[in-house]
Amino acid sequence: MNRDLSLLRDLQQVDKRIHELTEEVKRLPKYIAEIEAKLSSHKRQLEADKQTLADNQKARRQMDGDTGTHNQKISRLRDQLNEARTNEQYHAFQHEIQFEEREIRKIEDRILDKMEEAESLEKNVKKTEEALKIESQKVQAEVAETKARVAEDDKALVEQKARRDELAAEVSPDALRLYGHVRRGHGGMAVAQALADRCQNCNVLFRPHFSYQVRSNEKILTCESCGLILYYEPPGAGVEDPAGDAGIVGG
User: Fold this and answer.
1) I need a labelling partner for 235 at 20 to 30 A (CA). Which of 28, 73, 114, 168 fits?
2) What secondary structure does DSSP assign to the chain, as a single string?
3) What's the gap between Cα 218 and its chain centre?
4) Whole-angstrom Cα distance, residue 105 to residue 109?
5) Cα 238 to chain center, whole Å?
6) Phi/psi of residue 105, each to 5°?
7) Domains of the chain: which residue ranges?
């Protein structure tokens, strides 16, 4: 195989790996931020539930106080009832006592409603606390694992970039220039494997003579349809030793 062609094939693989690592290094911190933000959201929801429960308890204490106030009024009214001197006074005090008793019953009904609500809130808070504890542990583990992955990717990225520099230094200037031009025009893709009679990238059939030239791997050829640099590897063949240099020609 043409030496430059062999090197460009390897360079394509290295560039692909560099792109993958770069994208992952950019993506992983965002992932960490997302799971931490989700955890923070759940923590805020738990605090809101706890506040709702606290407000419920405060309301019940207030209503208990209101009940005590009404009972004190009833106690005073009963004393006044016993001291009533006329039927009108007696009936008036009775009416007030009945009013206070109705108010107490209303408050007691609201207290029962609040107690039922509190029971549901307490269960929900307890359940949320348990789930949040598990989630926090999971997030901590994922963050640690992801940070370790970023460190590994950073190290691999340095190695791959060094490998790229080594390969690029071995490629002839003309071949490297062609590779860069094709790569820029195809979103980072520059080299494609050819099958016996077609380009594996665009699947367009080759002309017979062009197909023969591609299979020889003696020159750097570009696909007549998609423009990618082509190399051919016979079925079942291993990596070939680079052949001698040859000129660069278009499709």
Assistant:
1) 168
2) -BHHHHHHHHHHHHHHHHHHHHHHHHHHHHHHHHHHHHHHHHHHHHHHHHHHHHHHHHHHHHHHHHHHHHHHHHHHHHHHHHT--SHHHHHHHHHHHHHHHHHHHHHHHHHHHHHHHHHHHHHHHHHHHHHHHHHHHHHHHHHHHHHHHHHHHHHHHHHHHHHHHHHHHHS-HHHHHHHHHHHHHTTT--EEEE-SSBBTTT-PBPPHHHHHHHHHT-SBEE-TTT--EEEE--TT--PPPPB----B---
3) 48
4) 6
5) 40
6) -65, -40
7) 14-170, 173-232
CA 69 to chain centre: 55
Task: Report the candidate in 47, 59, 67, 71 with the shortest Cα–Cα distance to residue 113.
Answer: 59
Q: Which residue has the tokens 């409603």?
A: 113
pLDDT tens-digit readout, 177-192? 999 999 999 999 999 9
Contact call for residues 8 and 170 (beta carbons, < 8 A):
no
Q: Is pLDDT at 244 greater than 90 in this prediction?
A: no
Which residues are within 8 A (CB) of 147 and not within 5 positions of it... i.e. 6 or more apart?
32
14-170 CATH fold: Helix Hairpins (1.10.287)
Question: DSSP letters of 180-232?
Answer: HHHHHHTTT--EEEE-SSBBTTT-PBPPHHHHHHHHHT-SBEE-TTT--EEEE
Task: Give bridge partners of residue 222 from the DSSP assignment.
Answer: 229
Report the amino acid identity of residue 58.
K
Work out whether strand 229-232 and strand 221-222 pair parallel, antiparallel, or are unpaired.
Answer: antiparallel
Are residues 17 and 160 in contact, defined by beta-carbon separation less than 8 angstroms?
Answer: yes
